[in-house]
């Protein structure tokens, strides 16, 4: 177990190194005229001007051999300097970390809301098979699983912010502004987790240890809380890692619809303006977090579930 | 499923414009109303089956072929060098599986520009990995089964064994994985198009229609409702067929 | 239902715990603007113009409502051959307290002229600036420049305090500008906070505090205004017009913009090398239908390159479509039912009206027997192709003023032989001679006459088809004082005031 953890965590920097080189080279080789794109992203209606493009290329270091550019980037990255944005000229590192913080907040809140709804719902549903709660988890869950964020988001804005006027429609910073994006993000994991918890709870309820506990005279509530819940949570945790990792860079739709300054939107904007340093840094951060979380989830899963050991 | 195929094959009048009757609410002549160019929304939603559902399925199909081939190869290979290759491939797989789907779409769009082809490439880049992982695991299991070992000792070539013994054994789980991944692929494609990075208007792809319709949500809610309902309906149906 | 109930509870708890997100009052307003800063408020980007629009930074020369130069940080200017002498306003200080003098102006303009890609308004004319006295600046160009004061009205030539340029980094506008509003906080591309500059030399800002939010999505801007998140929003979606006009709490304004959506035709290759084919396309299109029906009145039909935003723009409606006429022209050029004209039409989705218009144009051309294949792609990928003349038709959106109220540079880059943005590949010695005159003539009335002639020449030669001039919109809710600016070059925020 510890050996596995060491082996896998040793692999992560290697994977990051390879991935960063691939992203670096591909984005510079295949993207057409980068300096023209950078100038246009700064000044939209500017006509092409080869002299200005050459001067800018020199300033951005794009006229040097690709290998030198990458090595310079790598040397900086090792020292924690991820370079300066082509468009804003601001240091990329703090910008990416700030955006990642926003996305992480969004993801964790989304997951918390989802679990707060899903775990009780799943346990109750499993407790009374065929009851109203069970049917709700079944039917509602199936529908919610089928509804993508780009449908939920606009609908919530329309109903909650516009027609009812309860919450601000967009932005980020106040708790009220966080509600709609968090709820939108929570829909899918809530439905998924409710189903998982229900399935696992059913298995756990049928397990001999549960039967024994009931026979020993424990209350049903206590049996559920002490014996059944931990088992069903294992399955949910296995899904939580990938969800958090996915949300960190992949909540583009939610971040765009609700105007949240997260990592997904930062990357989408950077891709639009061909701001290579921001793309590079953002992707490396997303990758690193994804790899670490995947590993952590797997290890946690093994630690919690004896069957996987 | 069969109904969807039929709908996808028919050429619906998705581009017939009628500027005098734009943004008409649902009526007898236009069951789901008309859009900003006076096009029939029902025709466009039905015409969108070919794009949203068809392209989603096509992307998963290509992913299955590539992923299975890779998984079969890495699962079958033996020996130290093969194991190193296998480990490398598996770490790439781990990497790809860990990436958010939309982010890969963004990345590919960054390199190749927004459009149908980059979006499809992104789906395949994303899609092959889980199948490779599955095929790899199943092949490793199958390789050690008695009847496969027996066939090998009788001098059967690896390709023959893979085709005759291993492949049939793993088609069942693969088919199940296909339905499971199809919804994800379809929604990713629609999501990319919604962000303007996938299928471009005037093609009646549902995500693109939804993005276009959002501008008219107040005066013509059916422009949002119709493609949204179509996405939800197909993905719910596919989800049900997966569970049952 | 069990799933929904806890959700509602969580929602309700969060709502009651946090309260609404409405901005606090007390003489402050919140506004939703369309375009965020592109490069951290860099002057060698469109952000310079944004800083002027916000009322934060000021150039030497201000503009009146007609787009004529009026005193700004400079009170007077005189031309002496190939140089202009600017006399600076006495007693003006930057937000950090430093005085505005000749050295500060020279520092600021020298910085921006030294960037790799200097602003369009002042590049390519060999501009150099030097202090002539403590409050006098001399600006010299290679050749005499008739419109230098107008060029120096561009927000991209705004003046910041010397302290801003001393850092070695990109100069920051926080506390370093001169305008009626002082920038106190930058929230990236999300927004900024502005406060009234009580020491301003001119009319003071009408609000004590402005919370600026950049919202790129038009639908979201509308929602923010309707829900009361902001009191002012610009660039509202076409479909919101009726609803906002009917809302008694909202003041809705619609005004022209100095922009033209053009159907550009490649003259360097068949079929559009033939003027009859270009005229046939022009004749086949009904621009009134395109503007009034397809775009729902969010644009004015264009009969000319220049529209009603400028005094020399055409205001009469373009002719209606003449399908038989178009077919006759096509027949003369050798196209007909037996040999139909097939063309490719390219456009890009960054401006959402373009794909819609492309569809409508294709369907109007179809009626005249022209088959059109539409490709909606990425502008960055299309640009090298169209500039090299490897295309048929390109639907483009183009502002005909470039950061200052004068169209000469657009005419020169877009329509002269060898122009740097000559997508139509038009080349006419007579037209080039006309544009050359714009480099000499100073009198505004005479320049206007030249612009009319140039636009007329483009129409006669059927150089592309000006399709529509998009209109700008703005709406106020709980805010008053908005003054529309068709040129989109003057300060907007300082005059906005909280209502009541």
UniProtKB/TrEMBL annotation, chain A:
Q: Where in the cell is it found?
A: Cell membrane
Q: What is its main location?
A: membrane
Q: Which residues cross the membrane?
A: 140-166, 178-197, 236-258, 278-300
Q: Where is the ABC transmembrane type-1 domain?
A: 100-297
Membrane topology field = Multi-pass membrane protein
Q: Which UniProt keywords apply?
A: Cell membrane, Membrane, Transmembrane, Transmembrane helix, Transport
Q: Name one Pfam family in it.
A: BPD_transp_1
Instruction: Name the domain of life.
Output: Bacteria
Spell out the family assignment given in the record's similarity comment: Belongs to the binding-protein-dependent transport system permease family.
Q: Which PANTHER family match?
A: DIPEPTIDE TRANSPORT SYSTEM PERMEASE PROTEIN DPPB-RELATED (PTHR43163), PEPTIDE ABC TRANSPORTER PERMEASE PROTEIN (PTHR43163:SF3)
State the name under which the record lists this protein. ABC transporter permease
TrEMBL record, chain C:
> Which controlled-vocabulary keywords does the entry list?
Signal
Pinpoint the Solute-binding protein family domain residues. Answer: 69-420
Q: Which organism is it from?
A: Actinomycetospora termitidis
Which SUPFAM superfamilies does the record match to this protein?
Answer: Periplasmic binding protein-like II (SSF53850)
Keyword DNA-binding in the entry? The reply is: no
Q: Where is the signal peptide?
A: 1-21
InterPro entries, sorted = Peptide/Ni-bd, SBP_5, SBP_5_dom
Specify the taxonomic lineage. Bacteria, Bacillati, Actinomycetota, Actinomycetes, Pseudonocardiales
Q: What is this protein called?
A: ABC transporter substrate-binding protein
Question: Which PANTHER family does this entry report, sorted A to Z?
Answer: MONOACYL PHOSPHATIDYLINOSITOL TETRAMANNOSIDE-BINDING PROTEIN LPQW-RELATED, PERIPLASMIC BINDING COMPONENT OF ABC TRANSPORTER
Record keywords: Nucleotidyltransferase included? Answer: no
Pfam families cross-referenced by the UniProt entry: SBP_bac_5
PROSITE patterns cross-referenced by the UniProt entry:
PROKAR_LIPOPROTEIN
